[in-house]
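Hey,

Quick one before I head out. I ran the complex with C2G overnight. Inputs first:
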Amino acid sequence: MKKVITYGTFDLLHYGHMRLLERAKALGDYLIVGVTSDTYDENRGKINVRQSVMERVQAVRNTGLADQIIVEEYEGQKIDDIRKYNVDIFAIGDDWRGKFDYLSDYCKVVYLERTKGISSTEIRSGQHLKLGIIGDNAYVNKVCRECSYVNGLETAAILTKNPEVLDQSVPENVLITSDLDALLEASDCIFVRSHPSLHYEHAKQALLKKKHVLCEAPAALKAEQIRELKKIAEENHCIFMEGLKTAYATAFNRLVLLAKSGLIGEVISVDARCTSIREVDEIEQWSSLTEWGPTGLLPVFRILGTDYQTVNIITKKSAKDDRFDLFTQIHFVYDHATADVKVGMGVKSEGDLVISGTEGYIYVPAPWWKTDYFEIRHEDIRDNKRYFFQLEGEGIRKELHAFAESIEDERAFSNIEGNVTEAAAGIMEEYYFKKNYTEI
Ligand code: C2G
């Protein structure tokens, strides 16, 4: 019996896939189809897949062409499978020509002509959302770059005071303007990345014009403003999400889940530090607390919740301009735990994250906010474990993808729960109104 194997995502299974499977099957007597797992696709940067692995497996099963279906979970698995299942022929579309020649050490490799004129990408991108970006620094370039990887979302307009910071990442036909109305007119949805003191106003204007909003954290500097924005969004049937790239890093999300699932026992303390020394004129644009606070607060609020007993804010202001904090520490006391967040743009420290529990701790090396790696450490080092998750585009890509998907499905798939957004705005409020506050 001649065994053939082929692999694919088979998202929104279409005629091109069917033809591929038919021809692969015709090469032998028994067809094995490897369907990629969600994590495997995510790790190879394929973030636009719409269906879950279970749905895709079912679709392949429904074709009636597969004699056996397996799930492809890791890089290099093809060699293992070919040996394990005693495969004679590996077949794949010729968009992969040359890429799998190395498998010819194990079996025959056949590239089949890819069917023209049809693809999952085209089926998926039913929606064409025009994204307007508001921002005055080079981060706008990153957003444009990452947007080009997200199906159904394209940068249409940019509102900026500093057009000179824009580079070749900005597509040519994008409207560059200094007029908010012109931006809103040209866009279906808005990424607010302006000065933090303007986030709320920009988000509000956009929502009032019925534009979906992804607003960089802190989305507002008062908790009440967050409630107001949510209300306007609801009334206008718009998506309102807070943006924070770390919240979309797979490694970060996994470590939160592991901490919550008791792997290090009871969590007693969360310590996060985020620092980056910046030039004075940049400091004038972004204070340490608004620049780093929401990131530092994220693991605290996601792991310990927002129901803390007390908070103390200790800050060191710049001697040049006392509107700006060089360093700010936020110390929380919870019923059974404590947390400490230290942020600074005028002080440098180790940018790591430590989550301490009664049976071990999670250690994320600097810069933890861009993390693709962490360790779970125990008293007995033989029990330590390391985790690695590929991170494309610092989390911005996944954040934009979640935004586009939320708009399409008309419900927010945010990785930041509503109460976290509100609690972070509450901390900003305490700082600006000098509540629970000490200057050093
Ligand atoms: N295909 C095709 N014609 C199309 C679209 C896809 O022949 N119009 C083929 C692809 O060449 C591939 C299979 O259908 O052989 C599955 O395609 P995808 O779902 O896009 O999966 P892919 O990313 O190509 O998976 O381990 C995973 C595989 O290496 C590749």
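Residues 288-304 form the longest helix (17 residues).

Talk tomorrow,
K.
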